[in-house]
Design goal:
alpha+beta; 19 strands; RluA_PseudoU_synthase; RNA binding; 301 residues; RNA pseudouridylate synthase; Pseudouridine synthase; catalytic activity, acting on RNA; PsdUridine_synth_cat_dom_sf
Length: 301
């Protein structure tokens, strides 16, 4: 098993050492660069090139990875039915799926099945590929979930998320009317000492948490909000809006809805720099019908 990534450097590329391209432009960790160098598996225009030599616009760069380059090149994920997999973007190295509400991103118990990654494993199996988790969404959250298709993209994507170079925008309906059209919530989040499932502002071992939002529209009793996270704490959006007195509609932990329904939190858009390229894509997961249904209901009430 091998994985290859090939790219032609664009016309506006400024000549630089190959090492700089790999580290600074493509965010490759040092240990991967060392492995490619040691195995002479980095080719420029078909020939091995030492990483201190320069590359130029129009050069064809090919990187070939082998299992020994990675601690966990293969994933122990049991394939489940691929019927529910809704792919909104796919290329050779990754895919973005529209996660269904109520499904876990990954299983938590040894004999458990039915998580989103299990379904993606079934989708990829006919092509001899396996899913690699890059990030997660809460079980009740729907929408765009990035999944790696080979281990070479994993450290790149994880770093892009960590350094906020992947921009994710969520949509959510919250109870009540937010008074400002946009704002920033900067409140530390820690564990809730009274409920291990929950997080709370200024809870145990709090960490800085920053949420940016803008109002899309309002109804008499609710507000549709677009949200971007500057930090990525557990339940961050849910906790921040609940603390403001505007919990997310349908939130089973932080809201007290009279009528049970799914939580209206959706990973809507992902602006994603593609690994081993100079391209960026904007991927959008269609807004669920439950958002429109709720808006119609709240307008009638």
């Amino acid at each position: 098993m091998q994985w290859e990534h090939v790219a032609t450097l664009p016309d506006n590329f400024i000549s630089k050492p190959l090492r700089q391209l790999l580290m600074q432009d493509w965010f490759m960790p040092k240990h991967l660069i060392y492995s490619l160098k040691r195995g002479q598996r980095v080719l420029v225009n078909g020939a091995y090139l030492p990483v201190n030599f320069s590359v130029h616009a129009g050069d064809l760069v090919a990187l070939r990875f082998v299992p020994a380059d990675f601690q966990t090149p293969f994933q122990d994920i049991a394939p489940d039915s691929a019927a529910t997999v809704d792919v909104v973007y796919e290329d050779d190295g990754l895919l973005v799926v529209n996660k269904t509400p109520g499904s876990k991103t990954h299983v938590n118990q040894p004999d458990e099945v039915g998580a989103t990654l299990d379904h993606v494993a079934a989708y990829l199996a006919p092509h001899g590929q396996q899913p690699h988790m890059i990030h997660r969404l809460d079980q009740e959250t729907s929408g765009a979930l990035i999944v790696g298709k080979d281990p070479a993209v994993v450290p790149i994507l994880v770093r892009l998320i960590k350094e906020k170079l992947i921009q994710r925008t969520y949509l959510t309906w919250v109870h009540g009317q937010l008074q400002t059209d946009h704002g920033t919530i900067s409140l530390p989040i820690g564990r809730d000492p009274e409920d291990q499932r929950k997080r709370t502002v200024d809870g145990e071992h709090p960490q800085a948490a920053i949420t940016h939002y803008r109002v899309i529209r309002r109804t008499a009793n609710a507000t549709l909000v677009a949200v971007q996270l500057q930090t990525g704490r557990t339940h961050q959006i849910r906790v921040h809006f609940a603390d403001l007195g505007h919990p997310i509609v349908g939130d089973p932990l932080y809201a007290t809805d009279n009528q049970r329904q799914r939580m209206l939190l959706h990973s809507w858009q992902v602006k994603l720099p593609l690994p081993y390229t100079f391209k960026t894509v904007l991927v959008e997961a269609p807004v669920p019908d439950s958002f429109t249904t709720f808006e119609k209901q709240t307008k009638k009430s």
